[in-house]
Amino acid sequence: MGLSRSESRSDGQGPERGEGPVRDEIMTDVPWITTKLDAFVNWGRKNSLWPMPFGTACCAIEFMATAASKYDLARFGMERQAFSPRQADLLICAGRVPFKLAPVLRRIWQQMPQPKWCISMGACASSGNGIFDNYAVVQGIDNIIPVDVYVPGCPPRPEGLLYGILLLQKKVQNERSGDKTLRNEMEPDPKSQLYLAPSVIDEISEPFGNSVHQTRSGL
After folding, report:
1. Peptide bond into 155 cis (omega under 30)
2. pLDDT tens, residue by residue, 12-51
3. What stretch of H or E contains 53?
4. pLDDT tens per residue across span 121-167
5. CATH assignment of 49-176+192-208?
6. What's CA 106's distance to the chain center, in Å?
7. Distance of CA 108 to the CA centre of its chain
8. Residue ranges of domains in the chain
9. Residue 149 near residue 167 (C-beta atoms within 8 A)
10. Checking DSSP bridges between strand 51-55 and strand 90-94, what pairing results, if any?
């Protein structure tokens, strides 16, 4: 469908009346939309989250159930599980975090590129759960890294994690590029015992095994 009109000009720069119509055609066979750039970018981000699971306890089993066929995490664009922090934008901490693992968790968070988000899955990751209120367990991972969504439960069912993911998607959709505080990194204090050099972190995490060291010499 096109729009045509006849114009009359007397300045010599266009057709006079009767010399022919000037046609302004609107191409309607090409799809187009009008939207805000923030809305378009955030729509793509919220529907293509790449989670990196950091499972340390029973919450990790519930995460596995969420990713399996019954609950089908792929419905939310999250079927691509990223076990490399440099290829992930969502950290899901599932389970309690001992102080021995705290520098490892922080190091993983620092290696993840922006934009990135974090879900604290379960009461142990969120607050220590009371039963682990002792010298060995971090009382909430928000003491180490920033957290966007807290999922309660011990452990939370897959429905609870899915609801937390929906809340995170809503938060991502409402982000605005004009807010300069969204991507502020939490700079670790060099004097903190949680801030360790990569070589020391490798030494600490070696008994657990990782993508670099698969030995079990510390056990």
Report:
1. yes
2. 555 555 555 545 555 567 776 777 788 888 888 888 888 8
3. strand 51-55
4. 988 888 887 777 777 788 888 888 888 899 988 888 888 888 999 99
5. 3.40.50.12280
6. 16
7. 14
8. 49-176+192-208
9. yes
10. parallel
